[in-house]
Design a protein that fits this description.
Helices cover 69% and strands 0% of the residues. The protein has helices at residues 8-22, 26-33, 49-53, 58-82, 85-100, 113-123, 125-142, 145-162, 169-182, 184-192. The chain is globular and about 45 Å long. It has one domain. The protein is an all-alpha fold.
């Protein structure tokens, strides 16, 4: 963890800002704006890019992926620029929680993979690129998005250590545990062999 140097009031402020950024449900907003229907009634009902892809609209899925990642990155970069590394990590964690548990959706949010990748890229870009590469390799070989996400999260702490970003190790562990918790139903389907593949409606 980084040294706590920012005043407590400012840390709370950046936690709130991070949460509010993270809680913007881009998947739902884009689906409604593009006439794709109610995302809650499509596929898994999740608000993330994988479920948007199940509408058959690849541009909408790509935009959801980018925007969900961007909100995590923006939270980290803004907090780092205006406060410090301690605020950046707290804002990143809050953005992740905002995506997973948005107040606007009765705390029924997404699984946080894109937001996780975005904030890790902003925290330490070599680690973020390694996480992206892990996701891509597993997704390309298995065509199972959840398995790729779990693999990328599981090895993220290894990349943090290898790339010398040790001050983010505790945050990386917390985020990994959160990813696994949010994917517990996917894990059950993976074990049962019933998890759908990428692009499957």
């Amino acid at each position: 963890m980084p040294f706590i140097e920012t005043a407590p009031a400012l840390l709370i402020l950046w936690a709130v800002i991070g949460y509010l950024l993270g809680s913007i449900p881009f998947g739902i907003v884009l689906s409604k704006a593009m006439g794709l229907g109610n995302l809650r009634e499509i596929g898994s009902g999740n608000i993330g890019a994988t479920n948007v892809l199940r509408t058959g609209n690849k541009p909408a899925a790509a935009m959801t992926l980018l925007l969900d990642g961007a909100k995590g990155a923006v939270a980290v970069l803004l907090a780092r620029a205006m406060a410090g590394e301690d605020a950046a990590q707290l804002a990143g964690l809050a953005a992740m929680l905002g995506h997973c548990y948005p107040v606007w959706l009765r705390f029924q949010g997404g699984k946080g993979v894109a937001t996780f990748i975005g904030l890790v890229l902003a925290l330490a870009w070599p680690v973020g690129l390694a996480v992206c590469a892990t996701w891509l390799v597993v997704a390309a070989s298995t065509r199972v998005s959840s398995l790729a996400a779990l693999a990328a999260a599981a090895v993220s702490t290894v990349w943090i250590v290898l790339f010398g970003a040790g001050q983010a190790l505790f945050l990386g562990i917390v985020l990994t545990l959160l990813i696994f918790w949010r994917h517990r139903s996917n894990i059950a389907r993976l074990r049962a062999g019933t998890e759908p593949k990428i692009g499957q409606k």
